[in-house]
Amino acid sequence: MSKRELIDTGTDKRYVRRDEKGQFKESDDVGKSLAADRRTKAKTTVKPGQGDRGDQKKK
After folding, report:
1. Which domain holds residue 1?
2. Tens digit of each residue's pLDDT (9 = 90 or more) over 3-41
3. Long-range contacts for 31-40 (Cβ within 8 Å, ≥24 apart)?
4. DSSP string covering 11-53, please?
5. Contact 50, 44 (CB under 8 A)
6. Can you give the pTM of this predicted structure?
7. For residues 27 and 4, is the Cβ–Cβ distance under 8 A?
8. Is residue 8 part of a domain?
9. Do residues 1 and 50 make contact, with C-beta atoms less than 8 angstroms apart?
10. Which long-range contacts (CB under 8 A, 24 or more apart) does 23-28 make?
């Protein structure tokens, strides 16, 4: 599974994953709901870079 990277286009921010060729595979817009989701406590733990599939518990 490829890691997510944050792309800031200047007008919006999005998390993207790239395929083996380096092309965009999937893209998620960072809106208010995703930003608010990062402020809540995690129930499901996942590896770093996989935050859209769960969260990481705060250390």
Report:
1. 1-39
2. 888 888 888 888 889 988 989 898 888 776 666 777 777
3. none
4. S-EEEEEE-TTS-EEEEEE--HHHHHHTTSPPSSB--TT-GGG
5. no
6. 0.51
7. no
8. yes
9. yes
10. 28/52
